[in-house]
Amino acid sequence: MKNFEFQNCTKIIFGKDSEEKAGTEIIKYSSKILLHYGGGSIKKYGLYDRVKSCLKKEDIGIVELGGVLPNPRLKLVKKGIELCRQEKIDFILAVGGGSVIDSAKAIAIGVPYKGNVWDFFEEKTKIKESIPIAVILTIPAAGSEVSGASVITNEDGLYKKGVEANIMRPKFSILNPELTFTLGNNQTAIGVADILAHIMERYFTQEKNVDLTDRLCEATFKTLLRNTPVILKENNNYAARAEVMWAGSVAHNDLLDTGRVTDWASHMIEHELSAIYDIAHGEGLAIIFPAWMKYVYKNNIERFAQFGQRIWGVDFHPYDLEGMALEGIKRFEDFLKRIGLKTRLSEISISDDRFKEMAKKCTENGPVGSFVKLGKEDVLNIYNLAK
Ligand code: NZQ
Ligand code: ZN
Hints:
By secondary structure, the protein is of the alpha/beta class. Helices cover 47% and strands 11% of the residues.
């Protein structure tokens, strides 16, 4: 196990009606906020009105900025920065999913910075300051409600890039599983694919003696395998929705990577897809992750055999670890199909036209991943395996 430091400062407020606490929590920080949200789901389902009335009870001034798109864009981030400066806003409440939260985080680091906020994403400068943000989460998926990361798409050149700093973690995140009842099955499954990917990016490590975190990863993974089929049948099943929602945060609050070297190649390879084709991130991961697995499993067959045995119940065959590994990958892909996801690019009408361009962009700062370091040709091979 590697040395590590672990700190996650985000307070979690979990459970039924928990969004009613937003006002009393925010007033500890600010009396005038930016209310940031997406394309309208919060208005359609009544959350917007409830949030506004609980903020008004605390006399919190509200300036609004809606319209965040999935795969959030830099243009709106810049608009948000200007708005916060004009209105002298020192706190942002993000109500929505990963896209809204990431947009809020990017605005928050942009407000105190004199240059172009994209500088942070291009690693031209380090993040030193941020105004605080908080979250009311409406979809378990990205884990941005507990992470110190923001992923933004620059429309100019279609670059999707992430930036990370502890200072960007939300001060608090409100998780009410009831708010996720309105998610359609496809959106729910896409979110689950992202959560599973966050676990696997950590699980597939070459680090030895990481038994506790292996088993925490396995428990989180199996919780999703058990509860996802339930919520796809019964959208309003609170108990199962609660398990999936909490798993989404546990998968990405960095506990599961303590003492390990994590990978993230599949995420980098996927981000090129969602940047160019504007597909949902989890939809892309359901296609890229199985392809990545098939490409790299030989670099640590024991670990993939363990994945097959402990997560998928594959029988132990000491003389056929490769068979165990391949069966685990197959069962994973079958699960994705069972929950309604596609596992090939051709099934979502993406051809090989731009594979070379994506492989080049993906590796322009050097090889990606740690389980195996992947260069441009490797990434191209993975896109081809995902065809
Ligand atoms: O925009 P609205 O109208 O709110 O609709 C959203 C959106 O269309 C809808 N939705 C959300 N909650 C709903 C709902 N519809 C009905 N009922 C509800 N309760 O869902 C759609 C997708 O929302 P989005 O926020 O895009 O989803 P997600 O949470 O999957 O976020 C994806 C983004 O997060 C980034 C991804 O790259 C992608 O841009 N990620 C961020 C990470 C981080 N900051 O740590 C890590 C992840 O790996 C990921 O890269
Ligand atoms: Zn992800």
